[in-house]
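Check this:
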Amino acid sequence: MEDQSVSSAPPKRPVPAGPPIPNLYNSTMGGTVKGI
C-alpha cells in the first residue's frame, strides 16, 4: 500500500499542499503526519 500511496500521493492525499514533498514524507515516516 505504501508504494501505491507514494505513486498517487498528490491526488489521494487530503493534503492540499502543492508539492508532493509532504505526501512522500508521510509515507516515509510510516504515516506519522497522515494521522491528521
